C-alpha cells in the first residue's frame, strides 16, 4: 500500500544529473514548489564521463544557460582547474570557452546550491511510475511506494533507464559504473504509449597519475588570463593545472586489430547506435585505418585525486586488453588503471514525441529533458533541463511558453533539431548545425538572451542593468567609429580590412575604450557587419515561415496533392509552423506550398 506524501508539489524533477539540476533550480527560482527525486543523493551533478565543461558549440550553450539564469557556468567558474578559449586564431563564430573541472568539487558545489535553494526539496528515491489522470500528470510513485502528488513532472534520467554496462564479455545492470540502473520507469512510459529505443555511449579508463611518466609527455597549459563562463564572474583567480598530450601508435592499433572480436561493439553484443562524433578507440582504428596515430589528452580529474581521464581512449574491451592498450602509449608504459572503460546501453524516447516546449505530446504536463531525448553531453542536457523547467512553470502559471528560435540561440537549434527530425544516434551540438552561427557567438549570449532571463525573474536587476550599460557602450563606440573619418575613409571601413585591428583604429582616433569585453564586441560587430546583416535578413525571411502557424487539428490526410511520405511525417511530428514543417526531412517545397494554401483557405473560412 502506497504512502501519500504530506506535501504536494508544483513540479517534480526525476533525476539529478546536469539536466535535472538546471530544471529543479529554475523551477524553484520561478516560484514553483519543487521536488528533485534521485536514486542516490551522493551522485548529484556527477560528471560521469570527462571532467570538462564547454568546447566548440558546447561552450556557447553554457553561456546561453547563464544568460537565461542557469547555474552551470557559475559552478564551472568556481571549480575549474584549467580554462582555455578554443579557436582564438579562427573566426568569432567558432571561438568557445572550455574548462577542466574538479569533478568532485563541481558536484559538491552544485549540490550545495540545490540544497540552499528556497522552494526546492531534495529526496532520495527511485521513481517507478508516472501517475496520470486521463492524459495529464498527477504525480509519481517511488519504488518504496511513496506517492508524491504534483502538477508537472520533468524526467531527466540520463543513461539510467534499463542501463546495461559492457566490459568485454562481462555485462551488468547500471546507469554508470558504481550506480544501479532504473527499472520500471521505461515500462511505465511504454504503457503510457511512448515509443522507446536504445542508444549506447562509452567512457575511457581512468589512470593513476603516480604511474604516468610525465617527462615523456607534452604539457598543455590553460590561458594566462582565463575568460569566465558566467557573465556574473568578474575574474578567475584560482591556480590552474596542466593537461598532457600523447598519441596512440602502431603497436596500440595492432593490439586492437588482433582482439577486435573481444569488443562487445564488434562481437554483436551491442546492437545500439553510439555517438558518431565521440567514437570508441575500436571504431577509430577501423573507420580511420589510414591514420598512423590518434591524439590523446590526459586530463586530471581534480586537485585532490590521482585519477586521470584519458580523453580519446573510450573502450569496452576486456580488462586485460585495456591494460595492454594503455601500456603501448608513450608515457604510460607502466601505468596502472584505477577504473576500466566501459560501454553503456540505455533506453531513450525518440524526441519527435515532445513539443518545442519539451512537454510530451501524449501526456500533458510531462516533460522530457537530457539524454532521454537522445542527446549526448552535459551541456546539451543542462540546457534542456533549463528550458523544460521554465516551460513547466510557465504552463502552471498559465503564461506563454518560451520557445527560442534557431536564430536566437544554440539552445533553439538543438531543441528544434530534436523535435522536428528526431535522432537515431546520440545528438551532439556543433556550430555547423546552426545556420546563423555568426549571430550566435559565445560573446554575445547576454545580448541575445538576458532579457528573457530578466523577464522570467531569473536575472537580478543589478546584473541586467550592467548588461544594458555594456550594450549601450558597445553601440556608442560602434556609432562613434562609423562616424569618424581618417584620410577620407570612415573608420569602420578601415577596420573591416583584414590587416586592420581595433587597437590601430583607436590609436588613429586618439581614443581608448578600457574594457576588453566591450573592445572585443565592437571589433567583431564592425569587422563582420556585412556577414551578420546577411544572416539577419535570412533569419527575418525564415521567421515569416515561423509565424505561419499550423492548426493543431489539421488533418493531413485530407490535403489533396500531399504524398504518402509527407502525410506520415507531418502526422508524426505535428509541426507548429510552416517553418518547422519545412525542416522535416523529406518534406519538399511543393509540400510546403500545399500546406500554405490549405492554411490560408482555413483562415478565410474563419
Reading off the top of the CATH hierarchy, the class of the largest domain is best stated as Alpha Beta
Number of strands: 23
Portion of residues in beta strands equals 15-25%
The CATH architecture designation of the largest domain is 3-Layer(bba) Sandwich
Count of domain modules = 4
Taking pLDDT < 50 over at least 5 consecutive residues as the criterion, the unreliable ranges are none
Mean pLDDT: 94
Backbone structural class: alpha+beta
Q: Considering the protein shown, what is the CATH homologous superfamily of the largest domain?
A: FAD/NAD(P)-binding domain
Helices, by number, come to: 20
CATH topology of the largest domain: FAD/NAD(P)-binding domain
Q: What oligomeric assembly is this protein in?
A: single chain
Q: Overview of this structure, please?
A:
This protein is α+β, with helices and mostly antiparallel strands and 606 residues long. The protein contains 20 helices and 23 strands.
Amino acid at each position: 500500500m502506497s504512502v501519500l506524501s504530506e506535501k504536494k508539489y508544483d513540479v517534480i524533477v526525476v533525476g539529478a544529473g546536469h539536466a535535472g539540476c538546471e530544471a529543479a533550480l529554475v523551477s524553484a527560482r520561478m516560484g514553483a514548489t519543487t521536488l528533485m527525486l534521485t536514486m542516490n543523493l551522493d551522485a548529484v551533478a556527477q560528471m560521469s564521463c570527462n571532467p570538462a565543461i564547454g568546447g566548440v558549440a558546447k561552450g556557447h550553450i553554457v553561456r546561453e544557460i547563464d544568460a537565461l539564469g542557469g547555474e552551470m557556468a557559475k559552478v564551472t567558474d568556481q571549480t575549474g582547474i584549467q580554462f582555455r578559449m578554443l579557436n582564438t586564431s579562427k573566426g568569432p563564430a567558432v571561438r568557445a570557452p572550455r574548462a577542466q573541472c574538479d569533478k568532485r568539487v563541481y558536484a559538491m558545489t552544485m549540490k550545495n546550491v540545490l540544497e540552499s535553494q528556497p522552494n526546492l526539496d531534495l529526496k532520495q528515491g527511485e521513481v517507478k511510475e508516472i501517475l496520470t489522470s486521463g492524459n495529464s500528470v498527477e504525480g509519481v510513485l517511488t519504488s518504496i511506494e511513496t506517492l508524491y502528488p504534483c502538477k508537472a513532472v520533468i524526467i531527466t534520467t540520463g543513461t539510467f533507464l534499463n542501463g546495461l554496462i559492457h566490459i568485454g564479455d562481462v555485462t551488468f545492470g547500471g546507469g554508470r559504473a558504481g550506480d544501479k540502473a532504473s527499472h520500471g520507469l521505461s515500462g511505465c512510459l511504454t504503457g503510457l504509449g511512448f515509443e522507446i529505443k536504445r542508444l549506447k555511449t562509452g567512457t575511457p579508463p581512468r589512470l593513476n597519475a603516480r604511474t604516468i611518466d610525465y617527462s615523456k609527455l607534452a604539457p598543455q597549459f590553460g590561458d594566462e588570463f582565463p575568460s569566465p563562463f558566467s557573465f556574473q564572474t568578474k575574474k578567475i583567480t584560482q591556480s590552474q593545472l596542466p593537461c598532457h598530450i600523447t598519441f596512440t601508435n602502431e603497436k596500440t592499433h595492432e593490439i586492437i586489430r588482433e582482439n577486435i572480436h573481444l569488443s562487445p561493439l564488434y562481437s554483436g553484443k551491442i546492437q545500439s547506435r553510439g555517438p558518431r562524433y565521440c567514437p570508441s578507440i575500436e571504431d577509430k582504428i577501423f573507420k580511420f585505418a589510414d591514420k598512423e596515430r590518434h591524439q590523446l589528452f590526459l586530463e586530471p580529474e581534480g586537485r585532490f585525486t590521482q585519477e586521470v581521464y584519458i580523453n580519446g581512449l573510450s573502450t569496452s574491451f576486456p580488462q586485460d586488453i585495456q591494460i595492454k592498450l594503455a601500456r603501448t602509449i608513450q608515457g604510460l608504459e607502466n601505468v596502472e588503471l584505477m577504473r576500466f572503460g566501459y560501454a553503456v546501453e540505455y533506453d531513450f524516447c525518440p524526441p519527435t514525441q515532445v513539443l518545442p516546449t519539451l512537454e510530451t505530446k501524449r501526456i500533458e504536463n510531462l516533460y522530457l529533458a537530457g539524454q532521454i531525448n537522445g542527446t549526448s553531453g552535459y551541456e546539451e542536457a543542462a540546457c534542456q533541463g533549463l528550458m523544460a523547467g521554465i516551460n513547466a512553470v510557465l504552463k502552471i502559471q498559465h503564461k506563454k511558453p518560451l520557445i527560442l528560435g534557431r536564430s536566437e540561440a544554440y539552445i533553439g537549434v538543438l531543441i528544434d533539431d530534436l523535435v522536428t527530425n528526431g535522432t537515431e544516434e546520440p545528438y551532439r551540438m556543433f556550430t555547423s548545425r546552426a545556420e546563423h552561427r555568426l549571430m550566435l557567438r559565445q560573446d554575445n549570449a547576454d545580448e541575445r538572451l538576458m532579457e528573457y532571463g530578466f523577464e522570467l525573474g531569473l536575472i537580478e536587476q543589478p546584473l541586467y542593468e550592467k548588461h544594458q550599460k555594456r550594450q549601450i557602450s558597445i553601440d556608442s563606440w560602434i556609432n562613434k567609429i562609423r562616424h569618424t573619418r581618417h584620410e577620407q575613409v570612415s573608420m569602420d571601413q578601415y577596420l573591416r580590412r583584414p590587416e586592420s585591428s581595433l587597437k590601430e583604429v583607436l590609436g588613429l582616433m586618439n581614443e581608448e575604450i578600457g574594457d576588453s569585453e566591450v573592445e572585443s564586441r565592437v571589433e567583431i560587430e564592425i569587422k563582420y557587419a556585412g556577414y551578420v546583416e546577411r544572416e539577419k535578413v535570412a533569419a527575418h525571411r525564415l521567421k515569416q515561415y515561423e509565424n505561419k502557424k499550423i492548426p493543431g487539428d489539421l488533418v493531413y490526410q485530407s490535403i489533396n496533392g500531399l504524398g504518402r511520405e509527407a502525410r506520415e511525417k507531418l502526422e508524426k511530428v505535428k509541426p507548429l509552423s510552416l517553418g518547422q514543417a519545412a525542416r522535416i526531412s523529406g518534406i519538399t517545397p511543393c509540400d510546403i506550398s500545399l500546406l500554405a494554401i490549405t492554411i490560408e483557405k482555413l483562415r478565410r473560412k474563419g
